[in-house]
Design goal:
It contains 4 helices and 3 strands; from the N terminus they run αββααβα. It is of the alpha+beta class. Strand 1 and strand 2 form a beta hairpin. It starts with a helix and ends in a 5-residue tail after the last helix.
Length: about 130
């Protein structure tokens, strides 16, 4: 909900020149028609990759529910919600609505934050949990 509201605000209320908060933080509308970090691929390839990734995540999401592990379920839910939000953008706007710019980092949005944080925490939890070989 907050993800969709943030994009609505950026599209409908944000001044066209953007808003600067600090030296390295800016809100500026950018429609990303490529894939991650502006890499350009044909739209069909992007949709196919996104659908495959969402189905893969959905499989693991259902698998985690069986384990009754709230943390894994929540984190996978973040990733899936973020992926679906960006997929919805691609359908509605023919690209992902990105609007957060920090320094030289590529533009991103809250859905990207959900995806990135969910994946990183899941990786950390799995690395921490896996047995070490000495």
């Amino acid at each position: 909900m907050i993800e969709r509201a943030s994009k609505y605000f950026v599209i409908n209320k944000l001044p066209s020149q953007g808003v600067y908060f600090f030296k390295y933080l800016q809100l500026q509308l950018h429609i990303n028609t490529g894939i991650a970090w502006g890499l350009n691929l044909p739209q069909f390839v992007i949709f196919t990759l996104i659908i495959i990734i969402i189905l893969f995540l959905f499989y693991y999401f259902l698998k985690s529910i069986k384990k009754n592990n709230f943390v894994y379920t929540f984190l996978l839910g973040l990733v899936i919600v973020g992926a679906l939000a960006n997929l919805l953008d691609r359908i509605v706007y023919q690209g992902v609505v990105d609007f957060i710019q920090i320094g030289i980092w590529p533009n991103f949005n809250l859905a990207d934050v959900f995806i990135g944080s969910g994946v990183l925490i899941l990786l950390f939890l799995n690395i921490k949990k896996s047995p070490r070989k000495t």
